[in-house]
Amino acid sequence: MSYTALYRKWRPQTFEDVKGQDPIVTTLKNQVCSGRIGHAYLFCGTRGTGKTSVAKIFARAVNCEAPVNGSPCGKCASCLQIAAGNSLNVMEIDAASNNGVENIREIREQVQYPPTEGKYRVYIIDEVHMLSTGAFNALLKTLEEPPSYVIFILATTEVHRIPITVLSRCQRYDFRRITADTITERLKELTAAEQMPVEERALRYLAKAGDGSMRDALSLLDQCAAFHFGETLTYEHVLDVLGAVDHQVFRELFQAIRKDDVKGCIRTLEEMVVQGRELSQFVVDFIWYLRNLLLIKTAEDAEELFDMSADNLALLKEDAKLADENTLMRYIRILSDLSNRIRYASQKRVLIEVALIRLARPEMEEDLDSILERLEKLEEKAEHGALTAPGSAGAEPYPSGGTAYYGSGDMTADRAAVAAPSANQPAAGSGPQTAPEPRVVQLPKAQLEDLNLIRNEWGKIVRSMGMSIRPSFRETVVEPAGDSCLCIVFQDKMNFSMGSRPSVLGELERYVEQTYGKAMYFKARLRETGERIDTRYVSDEELKENIHMEISIEE
């Protein structure tokens, strides 16, 4: 006897065998038990989710002589005939090849005759969206008022192509994609019944590759089992047969992109080509990997959304720290566009290499996302001391232990200032001029601590903001503005109009409170023309220690 594919051999025979469609199954079983059976049904959903299988089970159930809890008994003459395909009461029609008006006219003529055996004549029209406009029109009247013994079951994967006049005459049931867990459990049952040794990790990957389709997952299992016949089917075997890539490869590729290592990216792709991996699947899986990183960055309690081990989840969290949300969204957009173009391309490898270069070198592009990513990288280099401002080579940005402050601003009533004397200051016009000493301002200890905390973390705080807002905080400085209050000084009018919005300042306040446990308030102002930016803020003790003189406080 010839071999029967797994998806055909294990096609559901009763409602209890149907997996992942519990609401639909329960409704249909209740209709059979109560006798409240409709005349027209529309089963819609993606491929491999059980539409045709449920239609056949329902056709047997309504004609079964002794249904069991709404399911066909599978033993009576009617059930056996329908299962064998010998019954004249159940007609299965492929609308892809029988889509003309004449085919529908044949159905209209047949429905005039009641069934010779059983209770109902059931017409299952598969891929009904392929019917022509004339065929749909010819079906309307019969579909709306068929004889009492006729049931129509229409099945389609493209419900949007069904005329609204047909939709309104049917009970619609939407078949959902089957979850990976449900498919995995079903594969375990089948492999155990088939006495097929297989690793659970391999089954999980096959369930994920099925993309919500039980039939696709079973077909992939059939393919892998045939290739490694007589062996234990392992995770590595599945990757080899499907041309897929292990999770570790995506980590290495992502880290190379974040390091601007184009050579490393090309080498990783070269290894995939040498190993014979399917490049289209490689791109799809990498998009999925980036999607997981984005969820880690944006969703609360994202761990519940991932079907992976604790070790892999920990590695995923480490990688998520390497890029912000907007950068990841840029990567996904580029690769999604690539996935659409690569399907029919003859030079898939070249297209992938170009996309990887675009990811690693945003300076090659001029779109807003690339510019924002370049700004982010410059800010990171500046924070780690890799960049210096023009004309400031060798300058100490925060002298006196980090208490220097760029920008002076108005002094409030709750603080007093003293001017530190400058020794040997030359008179005007008397020889070379030296840079004036910075202004020194005394602050209460608590205010100084808050100021130093925010200024030391200012780069990190700004980077936590959205990419659309972050550039407006370039060249900003922070100055004290009273108890638990700081003022942000902007150099540019446009940046000031963006960064001084209450919603932006409120976001800053929430971030500082959540991260540092400080309930602080922010306000903003624009730097005045000619205003000095070298004011130093010190405490009373530090000021005495540095200038060695008595301090007099101006009232």
- Find the count of extended strands (DSSP E, 2+ residues): 10
**Main beta-sheet strand count, sense and barrel state:** 5 strands, parallel
Low-confidence stretches: 387-431
What structural class should be given to the helix and strand makeup? alpha/beta
How many DSSP H or I helices? 24
Gyration radius, in Å: 36 Å
Overall pLDDT: 79
Strand content: 5-15%
Shape descriptor: elongated
Helicity range: 40-55%
Please state how the strands of the largest beta sheet are arranged side by side: 2-3-4-1-5
| N-to-C span | 106 Å
Q: Topology, pairings included?
A:
Blueprint: H1 6-9, H2 22-34, E1 40-45, H3 51-63, H4 77-84, E2 90-94, H5 101-110, E3 121-126, H6 133-144, E4 150-156, H7 164-167, E5 171-175, H8 180-193, H9 200-209, H10 214-227, H11 235-242, H12 247-258, H13 262-274, H14 279-298, H15 310-320, H16 325-342, H17 348-360, H18 368-383, H19 399-402, E6 440-442, H20 445-456, H21 458-463, E7 477-480, E8 485-490, H22 493-499, H23 502-516, E9 521-526, E10 536-538, H24 540-547
Parallel strand pairs: 1-4, 1-5, 2-3, 3-4, 6-10, 8-9
Antiparallel strand pairs: 7-8
